[in-house]
TrEMBL record:
Residues 461-481 have a biased composition (Low complexity). Residues 136-442 form the NADH:quinone oxidoreductase/Mrp antiporter transmembrane domain. This is NADH-quinone oxidoreductase subunit N. NDH-1 shuttles electrons from NADH, via FMN and iron-sulfur (Fe-S) centers, to quinones in the respiratory chain. The immediate electron acceptor for the enzyme in this species is believed to be a menaquinone. Couples the redox reaction to proton translocation (for every two electrons transferred, four hydrogen ions are translocated across the cytoplasmic membrane), and thus conserves the redox energy in a proton gradient. The chain crosses the membrane at residues 13-36, 43-63, 83-104, 116-133, 139-159, 171-195, 215-242, 254-278, 284-306, 318-339, 351-372, 392-416, 428-448. Its EC number is 7.1.1.-. Keywords: Cell membrane, Membrane, NAD, Quinone, Translocase, Transmembrane, Transmembrane helix, Transport. Pfam families: Proton_antipo_M (PF00361). Belongs to the complex I subunit 2 family. It is found in: Cell membrane; Endomembrane system; Membrane. InterPro entries: NADH-Q_OxRdtase_suN/2, ND/Mrp_TM. Residues 461-484 are annotated as: Disordered. NDH-1 is composed of 14 different subunits. Subunits NuoA, H, J, K, L, M, N constitute the membrane sector of the complex.
Length: 524
């Protein structure tokens, strides 16, 4: 009887509240969709938004401690779920990003005639998986959370039925993610065979002293395959090929969601397996991630540099390549953790950068969603003259782009880049710091080029100041109109999303120490 009792453990539902609430609201939406008439379907969007806000608020009671659940009866300190400071900060980022995505989506779902029930169910299901992942402390839960976050995202990308680009984007995203998951599962199975455990703390302990050289070889292969799987999820080069087409083909709010929440999922998982699971292999994954960081930021920024406003290139594709470049910056502190005596500081740098990037990048996607309402192609040239039509929106987008570039008045972007740069220097990675500095200069060009487009005359070309044709196809003979009609009112949810992102960016630029102090608590 005592043996049976020892196997029974209580579940800390308060610690589980953030992902559980998101999942519960997703189920409520799925059921409500069966009974609501078509005219009442928009109500589902507001239920989803309220559910995400409630899930985010459920983090507040957890701030005063480190709560754990699903622990091994024989080892109470070895648990599968930990609501520690690292998990809470990433959950805040994930749920906040999903909330902004929901605000962007309310009008998109209606305007593009997307199936409301499926859309909101999939978005909240993905957010639930994304909120579960940073609190996962064993490899099985980690993989399950990653797939719960990823599988609904495949469907969301391809939800524009009848759209060839959307279908192709979903297929590329699906195939690349399935390949990444297969590689990761193979690595996890190798690690389990070598160490006899799936819990990260026990795996880390076992890896320090494997009795058989053959087991050591098996464990090394497992660690390498697991890291390769996460490299796909973080869009690190050369595993980034799915990003541009996926972002362009997906509904615009989902592209923004993938660029922020998808990255948070991949990077939090990468931090957990490297810093907590494989600290004894730091001499291997540290240099490997440093090379990946240099390659990723260079590939992303050089490709973004090729997106020319004069050639009708897509603004969303530019944001996609920019997202790859930003992933390279996010990898720098994780690589530095492999060289540092205290990896917690480096982890905090990645989290600080991710928090800044989430706010301003979703703000840029919010403005892109607004422009797409009148210019579905969403070319960079479609932003020409935006200041003369919507001055506040143009100033907001200019501010977001300057934050991403790391230029004043986007002080928070500058501080985040300095923090990442300092992590590389402190770890002795001077060569990586130099490559990062070069890439920051490259990124300045395309961010500033897009910013200047906002303030040009509506029919003014980049070089001569002459008017250019505005027909749908290149070379169309339709002349530019003499004037512009008064812009339509911005939908309230979209305006709220832009305002929230701008407020966060301005507040953090005025007091960047807030995000740095907040992120410094994200220690494992």
């Amino acid at each position: 009887m005592s043996t049976v009792t020892s196997l029974v453990q209580s579940v800390d539902w308060l610690a589980l509240a953030p992902p559980t609430l998101a999942a519960a609201v997703a189920l409520v939406i799925l059921v409500a969709d069966l009974f609501l008439p078509a005219a009442r379907k928009p109500l589902l969007g507001w239920i989803a938004t309220a559910g995400l806000a409630l899930a985010a608020l459920s983090l507040l009671p957890l701030l005063d401690g480190d709560r754990r659940t699903f622990c091994l009866p024989a080892h109470p300190d070895v648990c599968s779920y930990a609501a520690d400071p690292f998990a809470l900060v990433i959950q805040f980022l994930v749920l906040g990003g999903a909330l902004l995505t929901a605000l962007l989506s309310i009008d998109t779902v209606r305007d593009q005639d997307l199936p409301a029930g499926e859309y909101w169910f999939l978005l909240l299901s993905s957010a639930a998986g994304a909120a579960l992942l940073p609190a996962s402390r064993d490899l099985a839960t980690l993989v399950i959370a990653l797939e719960v976050a990823s599988l609904p995202a495949f469907a969301l990308v391809g939800l524009r039925r009848g759209d060839r680009l959307s279908s192709e984007a979903a297929l590329k995203f699906f195939l690349s993610s399935v390949a990444a998951t297969a590689v990761m599962l193979l690595g996890v199975s190798f690690l389990y065979a070598a160490t006899g455990s799936l819990h990260l703390s026990q795996v880390a302990h076992a890896l320090t002293d494997l009795p058989d050289p053959r087991l050591a070889t098996l464990a090394s292969a497992g660690a390498a395959l697991t890291l390769v799987g996460f490299a796909f999820k973080t869009a690190a080069a050369p595993f980034h090929f799915w990003v541009p087409d996926t972002y362009v083909g997906a509904p615009l709010p989902i592209a923004g969601y993938l660029s922020v929440v998808g990255k948070a999922v991949g990077f939090s998982g990468l931090i957990l397996v490297t810093v907590q699971g494989f600290p004894s292999y730091a001499n291997v994954w540290g240099p490997a991630l440093a090379v990946l960081a240099a390659l990723t930021m260079t590939v992303g920024n050089v490709a973004a540099l090729r997106q020319d406003p004069r050639r009708a290139h897509s603004a969303v594709r530019l944001l996609a390549w920019s997202s790859v470049g930003q992933a390279g910056y996010l990898l720098v502190p994780i690589a530095a953790a492999g060289y540092a005596h205290d990896p917690g500081h480096a982890v905090g740098s990645t989290v600080a950068y991710a928090l800044m990037y989430a706010a301003v990048n979703l703000g840029a996607f919010a403005v892109a969603a607004l422009v797409a309402r009148t210019s579905p192609a969403n070319r960079i040239s479609d932003y020409r003259g935006l200041y003369h039509q919507r001055p506040v929106v143009a100033l907001a987008l200019g501010f977001f782009l300057l934050c991403l570039a790391g230029l004043p008045p986007g002080i928070i972007g500058l501080f985040a880049k300095v923090t990442v740069f300092s992590a590389a220097v402190d770890a002795g990675l001077a060569w990586l710091a130099v490559i990062m500095a070069v890439n920051v200069v490259i990124a300045l060009y395309y961010y500033l080029q897009w910013t200047t487009v906002l303030f040009r005359g509506a029919g003014e070309t980049e070089t001569t100041g002459e008017t250019e044709p505005t027909g749908e196809a290149a070379g169309a003979k339709t002349p530019a109109p003499a004037g512009h009609p008064a812009p339509a009112a911005i939908p309230a949810p979209l305006a709220t999303a832009i305002a929230l992102a701008a407020f966060l960016g301005i507040a953090l630029s005025g007091a960047p120490q807030l995000v740095l102090r907040f992120a410094s608590g994200a220690l494992l």
